[in-house]
Specification:
By secondary structure, the protein is an alpha+beta fold. It folds into two domains: 1-30, no CATH class; 31-148, no CATH class. It has four helices and four strands; from the N terminus they run H-E-E-E-E-H-H-H. It has helices at 3-12, 79-96, 106-123, 125-140, and strands spanning 36-39, 42-49, 62-65, 70-74. A hairpin with a 2-residue loop joins strand 1 (36-39) and strand 2 (42-49). The longest helix has 18 residues, at 79-96. Bound molecules: zinc ion (ZN).
């Protein structure tokens, strides 16, 4: 269907682009992760690879280069799997600064935590809405002491 007809159809149904929850499923595009993430005064760049990275037999869906601060995610995967991989890499970032708290079995801990956190969100969409509201509220709160919000 030509894009003009799609836009007209959307307009007739009063569907606004950029509001995926209001759009029928066939118009919804998979979410794309943020290209930049800030943490601890550092900027991490997120890149989604078109081609799978197959360096060895072990399947690797994501990597994080701490020095370059680049997180790479394998593309063409289900959105929940991609998001879980992003959480996985973010947890590695946290553990990279954990010092003595860093577990010896970090990979297993990170796998379990990323899958578990994603499962909390998938089973409880209201939880992510609450967290989003907290973030919006705190970022607009003039007296917020960021160090007490951890
Ligand atoms: Zn890992």
């Amino acid at each position: 269907m030509p894009i003009k007809q799609v836009l007209t159809a959307l307009d007739e149904q009063e569907i606004k682009l950029g509001t995926p929850s209001a759009a029928p499923d066939f118009f919804a595009l998979p979410p794309f992760p943020p290209r930049k993430l800030q943490h601890g005064g550092l900027t991490f760049h997120v890149e989604v690879l078109e081609q799978p990275r197959s360096s060895n037999d072990e399947k690797c869906y994501g990597t994080c280069d701490f020095n370059k601060r680049i997180i790479e995610l394998e593309g063409n995967r289900p959105s929940d799997a991609e998001a879980t991989t992003l959480l996985h890499e973010l947890l590695h970032v946290l553990f990279s600064k954990a010092g003595d708290c860093k577990p010896q079995d970090e990979e297993q801990v990170v796998r379990m935590m990323a899958a578990g956190i994603m499962d909390w969100f998938l089973q409880n969409p209201s939880l992510i809405n609450y967290l989003s509201a907290v973030v919006r509220y705190c970022s607009n709160e003039p007296t917020t002491n960021k160090e007490n919000h951890q």
